[in-house]
Design brief:
mainly alpha; 59% helix; 434 Repressor (Amino-terminal Domain); 2 strands; two-stranded antiparallel ribbon; 141 residues
């Protein structure tokens, strides 16, 4: 049996695809409405389905805006969690890597910050935010 076939559908990809079906627009049109390169919505859905790597939070935010839904709904559907684990957010790996490699944040501190729970997903997750959170954690604030 092919493991790709037995994997449960990714809920974010499912919401993107269902939106396109329900509204009668193509993934290409959704990409255009989101201000993204043509076909990126399809690539995002495919990447999420196959666990082929991070999808940037800024890309998901743009797609959510074009769909007319909140980022929290796109990520979690109708039952968002009470808290969001920072390292579980799309884009965490790239943001953490940028914080360490480009901005000089301490790797152990970045790892600790990844375990934080937030009450809402940030609109944008990047290395600058992660490095700033790491500095706050190290300062004891």
């Amino acid at each position: 049996m092919n493991p790709e076939r037995s994997r449960a559908p990714n809920p974010i990809a499912t919401r993107i695809r269902e939106h396109c079906r329900a509204t009668g627009i193509s993934m290409r049109e959704l990409s255009r409405k989101a201000g993204l390169s043509p076909g990126l919505a399809q690539k995002v859905a495919d990447r999420l389905e196959t666990d082929a790597g991070d999808v940037g939070l800024d890309t998901l935010t743009a797609l959510a805006g074009a769909m007319g839904v909140s980022l929290v709904w796109l990520l979690y559907g109708d039952t968002p969690p009470d808290k969001v684990l920072l390292r579980a957010l799309p884009g965490w790996q790239n943001a953490a890597r940028e914080a360490v490699e480009r901005l000089g944040a301490d790797p152990a501190t970045v790892e600790a910050v990844g375990g934080w729970h937030l009450h809402a997903a940030p609109e944008r997750l990047d290395g600058i935010l992660v490095a700033a959170l790491a500095r706050i954690w190290r300062s004891g604030a």
